[in-house]
């Protein structure tokens, strides 16, 4: 039998007698005027639900996910056990809501007062310190997930919520990997612009499912902290991505946004690592964000520590007059012409902006 439709759920949830979990007793879905508030995704619809004591998010399935009941119960049990602060309280109810298609399960989650990542960024796009703080909190969050062998599976702006103190909350757990789900099919793949190309062919849920999107999000945050004009240049308010579109990912690092970011010495190592990730044939070949960031900073240091042809005790040459050398370079006698970085960045921005212009 097919699952109930979103209109089916919208009708039934307004009738208290059809909503069975005791935690929702004497409550009601939240409406704005005569309009029922709901948030629809590819597999679930979510209703904000107010009870006399608390506000919840009620999730109902309108599309099939393999063994959704077991997945949800296992995920809920695991999140309770690990007790990380990035997840909300979650309870699965087998006898959830009566519909024209019969009794259906539902999930009740604590409501979190926070804004989606993109909305938060739009309100603070010129505040580099705040965006930098979000980047650091994000890095800490994913490291904690890795330490507990967890992956969210669909890391993207809509599933990352930011509280007023800049702490982060993850929502939408249907795509999660937890150790007790090893071997389950990977059916919810996430959004283009966040996922490695091999993710679309990936068969089973994986602890490594987030590694690519972690680097995409972290690089985007670091770039926006330094180049806030990209928000308007890329028309990010109206896209389903952050800095990188699906076409950018498919370009394997050759599109204009990569060239623009590589021109910045701080961002270049992150972009190089992202390009390295894109060249891999499987998500199993990727590494977690904390390792990726470490490798971008340690590569040069490691080379010099191992003796990359440099011996400080070998006095093969000495600079007697640094001012004289500087004057020769400044005068152009070396044949070297310093590139105009400002003009180069201006041209790249113009090219990228043209691509994302709204149609007139």
What would you call the shape? globular
Domains counted in the coordinates: how many? 2
* Strands, total number: 11
Average pLDDT, all residues: 87
| Number of helices in the DSSP assignment | 12
Q: Pairing-aware structural class of the strands and helices?
A: alpha+beta
Distance between the termini: 46 Å
The CATH C-level name of the largest domain is Mainly Alpha
Fill in the CATH topology of the largest domain: Transferase(Phosphotransferase), domain 1
Q: What are the salient characteristics of this protein?
A:
11 strands, three-stranded antiparallel beta sheet, Phosphorylase Kinase, domain 1, alpha+beta, single chain, 12 helices, 360 residues, Transferase(Phosphotransferase), domain 1
Topology:
Blueprint lengths: L5 H7 L15 E2 L1 E2 L2 E2 L2 E2 L3 E7 L4 E7 L6 H15 L7 E10 L2 E9 L4 E2 H7 L4 H20 L12 E3 L5 E3 L40 H16 L3 H4 L12 H5 L5 H7 L5 H11 L10 H17 L16 H9 L10 H16 L4
Antiparallel strand pairs: 1-5, 2-3, 4-5, 5-6, 6-8, 7-8, 9-10, 10-11
Helix pairs in contact: 4-5, 5-9, 8-12, 9-10
Structure in words:
This protein is an alpha+beta fold and 360 residues long. The chain has two domains: 6-17 and 24-110, Phosphorylase Kinase, domain 1 (2-Layer Sandwich), CATH 3.30.200.20; 115-300, Transferase(Phosphotransferase), domain 1 (Orthogonal Bundle), CATH 1.10.510.10. It is built from twelve helices and eleven strands. It has helices at 6-12, 68-82, 117-123, 128-147, 211-226, 230-233, 246-250, 256-262, 268-278, 289-305, 322-330, 341-356, and strands at 28-29, 31-32, 35-36, 39-40, 44-50, 55-61, 90-99, 102-110, 115-116, 160-162, 168-170. Strands 1, 4, 5, 6, 7 and 8 form a six-stranded antiparallel β-sheet that branches. Strands 9-10-11 form a three-stranded antiparallel β-sheet. Helix 9 crosses helix 10 (289-305).
